Structure prediction request, 401 residues.
Amino acid sequence: MTSQPPFISDEQRRARLGGRHLLDPARRVDTVEQVADGVVVLHASDPATVYLSAGARLTDPSAAEVERALYEDVTLVKLLSMRRTLFAVTEELAPYVSSGAARAIAVKERAALVKHLGQFAEGWDEPRLARTEQRVLAALAARGEATTAELSELVPALRDTMLMAAGKPYEARQSVGSRLLRLLASDGHVRRCRPRGSWLSTSYPWALVDPWPEVPVREAKAELVRRYLAAYGPATVEDVKWWTGWTLGDTRTALADLDARPVRLAGPDGGEAGGASALVLPGDEDEVALPASWAALLPALDPTMMGWRGRDWYLRPQDVPLLFDRAGNPGPTLWWNGRVVGGWAQRADGELVWRLLADLGAQRAEAEAAIAAQAGRLAAWLGEVRVTPRFRTPLERELTK
Prediction:
């Protein structure tokens, strides 16, 4: 008789989440590189997310620690990659992200840009785009770093505009420069430098980067999934496919290359019956120790919140309309022992406010005290900084009224 795959309960999944994602205070780390490795990638679509996600996991949180890695040591780089999303990844992982995800995105971005230029920007074709790219790279080589606006003074073609969302109520014109620089970043030619202004600013210069080591695509994909399962496993095939943004075929190939092992997840009632099949790395089937109780305030688009497609084991479906915007972007969330239990926001005067959505029963007082302590910790290192998420959600808006 064939034995069933090991069973991993929701409680065990939450225990793994707390420890491996460095949210249990006993597992916090000293550097932002360690944070990024712990969760594989840090979401960077909103500039604040990298800082707040790191701060929640650092022993001594500060914006300076994140800036050191991003702009001084350049051991953390931003890449448009999985799911066409901007991520901050360690310098060591960047070649794998580039080969396994970013370059394919860049190919699609280039094709889309060429098509759009041909339709909505007069005098543009693929050869002209290539010539303009070379001029931009030459300008950066001579200047060192420059914003898109500054490069437009040196390469006037970047000032040309094209119509976006033609015929829609929100149609607008976008500069060729803004799209072209993003494309060059996806191709691994340029990187974002320290922003002009505060660490929340989206006005930043660009600089050239040295080429990363070449990694075969299949090897890169396997390494990305290995790191994902190490941090997020157990995960379903659908979770892996969603997180990477790959085809089902590429996802299954990477899992097979790792010899990922099947496990059973909890069913709708939390028991062993009726649960989905999932995968872990070889040797990761055993139970882990349960951490002490912990609380966390995580920012919009935090990698833990965005780690799985199937979220019912840590997020109540009835809370989704309050905690997500219409495009599916999560806002700031409260966590208690591996579950999302509410949301938080920062008001204009700097006060951090929060609301519990879940009924915590006998644990309520303990949870409220722990959440208040974490709110105080966050407020202390933010100081005079005011953070408004780029993607605002119903609860976050309500809390800031």
Q: What stands out?
A: The mean pLDDT is 94. The two ends are 62 Å apart (CA to CA). Residues 96 and 220 are 5 Å apart (CA to CA). The longest strand covers residues 339-346.
